[in-house]
């Protein structure tokens, strides 16, 4: 549907829409009562389930909605450039140069920055009790009825501001890593901050685990949360 025209198709098993003629095009895809899957790349988004398949290709923005029931999962993939993932308990959106993909009301949203970058993810909590897990390979924030995961992102920020008793668990890499904590935040990153960094702010409890490499910690009081450090940490010079 656009200026001067409208198309409607009903009861087709597969629908493919192409945004090739120019303009700023947006697609909205809606789920079924069953389990549905949304897969989106910078050039297309497709939503599928039992008996149907809907794809929007070369649209500037694709929005998928999971409101009809079932357990629905979204997979969002980044571009070769710098991408941004923002997620909370109701939606996850991944965007970069020339594209914008959003999944709303899905139980699970998984974003993959792929080989491009540098990529940044910001994950926001719910009003309930939430848990953040940060590792060099992926980070995940989850709570009642939702899960948001960021994979292959160089920077991940987890924000606990909505309420509940929230916990964060940070894990080191095989190399040398650094832990910093001050006020209401804790950050774990590789020594040069070149490959990964994840930061948890506003959490009630944070646990940081060191396993291999030479891992340093710099703790600057006051610290407003319970901080647990496990493994061989040494004080930063």
Describe the structure.
The protein is an all-beta fold and 237 residues long. It folds into two domains: 12-116, no CATH class; 118-237, no CATH class. The protein contains no helices and 24 strands. The strands form two sheets. The chain has a twelve-stranded mixed sheet with strand order 1-5-4-3-7-11-15-14-13-17-21-23, with no helix packed on it. It has a twelve-stranded mixed sheet with strand order 2-6-10-9-8-12-16-20-19-18-22-24, with no helix packed on it. Strand 3 (37-41) and strand 4 form a beta hairpin. The protein is elongated and about 65 Å long.
Beta percentage is over 45%
Write down the overall geometry: elongated
Largest sheet: 12 strands, mixed
Can you give the mean pLDDT? 94
Percentage of helical residues? Answer: under 10%
N- to C-terminal separation?
62 Å
Structural class: mainly beta
Number of strands: 24
Spell the H/E element sequence: EEEEEEEEEEEEEEEEEEEEEEEE
Strand order, sheet with most strands: 1-5-4-3-7-11-15-14-13-17-21-23
Radius of gyration: 20 Å
Unreliable residue runs: none
Number of domain modules: 2
SS field, number of helical segments: 0
Keywords:
2 domains, single chain, twelve-stranded mixed beta sheet, 237 residues, 54% strand, mainly beta, elongated
Strand and helix map with partners:
Elements: E1 14-18, E2 26-30, E3 37-41, E4 44-49, E5 52-57, E6 61-65, E7 73-77, E8 84-87, E9 91-96, E10 99-104, E11 108-112, E12 120-124, E13 131-134, E14 138-143, E15 146-151, E16 155-159, E17 167-171, E18 177-183, E19 185-190, E20 197-201, E21 205-209, E22 215-223, E23 226-230, E24 233-235
Parallel strand pairs: 1-5, 2-6, 3-7, 6-10, 7-11, 8-12, 11-15, 12-16, 13-17, 16-20, 17-21, 18-22, 21-23, 22-24
Antiparallel strand pairs: 3-4, 4-5, 8-9, 9-10, 13-14, 14-15, 18-19, 19-20
């Amino acid at each position: 549907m656009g200026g001067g025209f409208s198309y409607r198709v009903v009861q087709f098993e597969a629908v493919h829409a192409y945004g090739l003629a120019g303009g700023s095009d947006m697609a909205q895809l809606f789920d079924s009562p069953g389990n549905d899957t949304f897969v989106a790349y910078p050039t297309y988004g497709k939503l599928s389930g039992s008996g149907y398949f809907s794809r929007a290709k070369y649209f500037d923005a694709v929005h998928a909605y999971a409101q009809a029931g079932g357990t629905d999962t979204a997979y969002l993939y980044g571009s070769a450039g710098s991408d941004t993932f923002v997620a909370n308990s109701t939606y996850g959106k991944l965007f970069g140069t020339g594209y914008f993909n959003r999944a709303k009301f899905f139980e699970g949203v998984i974003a993959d920055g792929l080989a491009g970058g540098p990529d940044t993810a910001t994950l926001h909590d719910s009003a309930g009790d939430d848990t953040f897990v940060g590792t060099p390979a992926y980070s995940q924030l989850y709570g009642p009825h939702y899960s948001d995961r960021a994979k292959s992102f160089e920077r991940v920020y987890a924000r606990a501001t909505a309420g509940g008793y929230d916990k964060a668990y940070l894990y080191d890499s095989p190399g040398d890593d650094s832990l910093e904590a001050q006020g209401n935040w804790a950050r774990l990153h590789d020594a040069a901050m070149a490959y990964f960094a994840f930061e948890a702010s506003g959490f009630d409890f944070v646990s940081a685990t060191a396993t291999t490499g030479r891992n340093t910690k710099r703790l600057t009081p006051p610290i407003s949360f319970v901080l647990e450090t496990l493994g061989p940490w040494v004080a930063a010079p």
